[in-house]
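Checklist before submission:
- one chain only
- standard amino acids only
- sequence pasted in full

Submission:
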Amino acid sequence: MSTIDPDTIDRGILAALQGDLDDSPEPYARIATELGISEDEVIRRIRRLMDAGIIRRIGAMIRHFEAGIGFNAMVVWKVGPDRIEEVGALFAGLPEVTHCYERPPFGEKGGTLFTMVHATTDAACMEIVRQMARRAAIDEYEILFSQRELKKISMTYFDNEDQQDDWVQDEPEQNPNNPSEGRAK
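Returned file contents:
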């Protein structure tokens, strides 16, 4: 269990990282300028926050419709508990899959493994799903195609005004909307 006490600068970095980074060779320069520190100090602090488990990863969010990848499907796979880790690892390793997670049984088939698959055509999307099913030897799944994108933003957990006093990691806090799902404080 890791405990860290982020200061005002750390909280400013975390708040800035929740939004869009500059599309430049030095994406942390703007954060550094806004916080009155060097870009090297921003990067050092990000590494420290990652080492402490406050930041799990930094990644790009592609607006796939704008990028021409307009066929997307949430696939709900019926996978037994004895295979969930194996199949989850297989699917999560595929480049066409951006999300892969386990949930309580859902839908007509009672699927428990959810993947988000992206392709440039509906036929390509269907072929990817068929190949995934063959590779995992799974016959029962449901495909839910995206009709349109209504909202796509990064989650905002706090802003510069928030005071975060309790930064203990790895202690799950129950999500009131889903009692089976926890999140780190």
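Reviewer check: The chain has a mean pLDDT of 82.
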